[in-house]
Amino acid sequence: MYTLLLALIYTAFISLGLPDSLLGSGWPVMHNSLDVPISYMGIVSMIISGGTIISSLFSDRLTRKFGTGIVTVTSIFLTAVALFGFSFSSRFWMLIVFAVPYGLGAGAIDAALNNYVALHYASKHMSWLHCFWGVGTIVSPFVMHYALKSSTWNSGYRMIAFIQLGIALLLLVTLPIWKTGGKKDGAKEKGIGLFAALKIRGVPWILIGFFAYCAAEATAMYWASTYMVEVKGIASDLAAGFASLFYIGMTVGRFLSGFIANRLGDRKMIIFGTCILLFGILLLPITAGTPMISLAGFVIIGFGCAPIYPCIIHSTPYNFGAENSGAIIGIQMASAYVGTTFIPPLFGFLGNRIGFAILPVYLAVFIAVMIGMTEAAFRAARSRKG
Prior knowledge:
Layout: H1 2-17, H2 22-33, H3 41-66, H4 68-87, H5 92-120, H6 123-150, H7 153-173, H8 175-178, H9 194-198, H10 203-230, H11 236-242, H12 244-264, H13 266-283, H14 292-305, H15 308-314, H16 316-320, H17 325-353, H18 359-385
C-alpha cells in the first residue's frame, strides 16, 4: 500500500502541473483571439494565484478535518471544471470567471500534498514528486502546440481538461487507499495557528525567500514564450513548443536531484541549484549566433530551479518542527502565490513600457533575494536548535 499510495501522490502532482504551463504557452495567440493586450495574461494569473492564496491558508485546517485524500480529489475536480470552462471561453471575462475554481483547487492540493510528503517521505521523494509536476508542465505546451497547429487554443485546454478529469476519477476510486495509513491521511492533533507560526524564529525569512523564488519561477514560466517571440523573433506556434524547454530542464533536474538529495541535504541542494540557475539567466540576453543560446538558457534555468522548491518545502519540518509544518507550509504556499500573483503581471507592465528584454535582470533580482533570505532562515533555525 505504501508504494501504491506514493504512486497516487505522484499522479496527483502530474494533474497539478498540467494546467500550469498552458497559459504561458498559449497566450501569444490567446490574447489576439480574445482581443486584449498581451499584458492581460497577468490579470488571469493574478486571479488564479489569488485563489491559491486563499485555499493554501485554509489547507491545514481542511486537511486535518477531511484528510489529504479527500482534499486532493476535490481539488483536482475543481481544476478540471476550470479547464473545461477555459476551453469554451470566447471572451476575456469568461477566463476571469473560471480562473477562480482553478486557483482554489490548485492551492489546496499543493499545500496538502507537500506537507504530507515532507512529513512521511525522504527528501528524494520530494524531488521526484515535483519531477512529476514537471511531467505535467512538459505535456501541456506540446498539447497547446498541436492545438494551435491543428485547431484553436480552446481545444488545447479541452484536451488537458479530459486528462485532468481522468486523473480525478482514478484518485476517486482509489480513495480508500489513503485511509489505510490511519492518521497519515491528515487526521492528527490540533496544530498551531497561522499567527503563532509567524512568530517562530526564521519563518518570516523563509516566507520572503519562497516568495522571491516562486516570483522568479512563475515569471520565467509565463513569459518564456513571449520573450522568445518579442525579443528573439521566433514564430508564436514554435515558441509555444519551445516553452516546454524550461519545464524539461526542471523535470530532468528534479529526477536527477532525487539521487543526491539525501546525501547533500536540502540546504546544499538549494545553493547548488541557485548557481546553475544564475548561469542560465546569463545566457538569455546573448545576441550572437542563433536564438538557440537563449533556448539553452531556459533549459539551464529550469535545471537550476529543480531542487529549490522541493528542498525548501522538505526542510520545513526539520527547521521548524513536524508539529508546525502543516501551518507553516500553508503560509509558504500562500507567500509563494503572492509572488506568482503580482510579480509576473508587474513584468508584463514593465515589458510593455521598457521592453521584454529586461527579463534576465528581472529574474536575477528575485533570485538574489531568494538565496539571501533562505540562508538567513536556515541560520535562524540552526541557532534556535542550539
